[in-house]
Design goal:
261 residues; alpha/beta; Rossmann fold; six-stranded mixed β-sheet; four-stranded antiparallel β-sheet; 7 helices; 10 strands; 23% strand; globular
């Protein structure tokens, strides 16, 4: 299991309220998206889930236990900015993700453990679409390939929850859509709970099971939408009226949130 329960969470910096009374539940193996106006606290919320920030008030539970207030291998993360190590090859980067995964594995892998880790790393490299690039360095990869690498590096830790903070925002439209399909397939194959922060409402609607709309600062949950489209979704769903109607509904709610602010 990997259920997240957020109960009455506030985040304040002095007299500035960033998040106000946020409550939501993310079911085990679900894919949820957080959308809302710029500055509404989405990324702050994600940093609290990662353990980089602490809530001022409220509780965050993972599988019924208080979420550790520090980063750990139970939570993988991929940021918009490429978070790979330039001095390591693709294979070396993914193996390092395994070695850095805290108490679950030894800091260094030897013998059969290392051979097993290499096999697992190569499998994940294939799943993210980087087969044949194992010996390349990040500088030899495009931005989209580097994000594929970051995904493999995060998933080799076998996290309970994968946190995605605008991971495709810096990519061109075609590459973004390619990576939506990669994430879609990884979610099915890895059976991991995913929380996506994005400004792209098509991305949220294509990928998520449930979308939470947040208000302008201080961030609150304004609405919760269950995405009704069956999985697996193909890219041509974006031409369907129902899909575009949902995107427009989300757009309207966010526009109203800006005006209300």
């Amino acid at each position: 299991m990997s259920e997240l329960v957020i109960e009455k969470v506030w985040k304040e910096y002095g007299d500035q309220i960033v998040l106000e009374d946020v409550s939501l539940t993310v079911a085990s193996r679900a894919f949820v998206a957080l959308v809302g106006p710029s500055g509404c606290g989405k990324s702050t919320f994600l940093r609290m889930l990662l353990g980089q920030e602490r809530p001022t008030r409220g509780t965050i539970l993972l599988d019924g236990e208080a979420l550790p207030q520090e980063p750990g291998p139970d939570r993988g993360v991929v940021f918009q900015r490429y978070s790979v190590f330039p001095h390591l090859t693709v294979l070396g980067n993914v193996l390092l993700g395994r070695e850095l995964s805290g108490s679950r594995y030894k800091a260094k892998l030897f013998g059969a453990a290392r051979r097993n880790a290499i096999d697992e790393a190569r499998r994940l490299i294939g799943e993210v679409g980087l087969s044949g690039a194992e010996d390349k360095y990040p500088a030899q990869l495009s931005g989209g390939m580097q994000q594929r690498l970051a995904l493999a590096q995060a998933l080799i830790m076998k996290p309970k929850v994968l946190l995605l903070d605008e991971p495709f925002g810096a990519l061109d439209a075609f590459t973004r859509e390619e990576l939506w399909c990669v994430i879609r397939d990884l979610h099915t194959a890895q059976r991991v709970t995913i929380i996506l922060v994005t400004h792209d409402l098509r991305e949220a609607t294509f990928l998520a099971d449930k979308i939470f709309v947040m208000s302008a600062r201080p961030g609150r949950v304004l609405a919760e939408h269950r995405v009704p489209f069956a999985r697996p979704r193909q890219l041509d769903i974006m031409y369907d009226k129902g899909f575009n109607d949902m995107v427009q509904e989300l757009h309207g709610e966010i526009a109203q949130a800006r005006v209300a602010a």
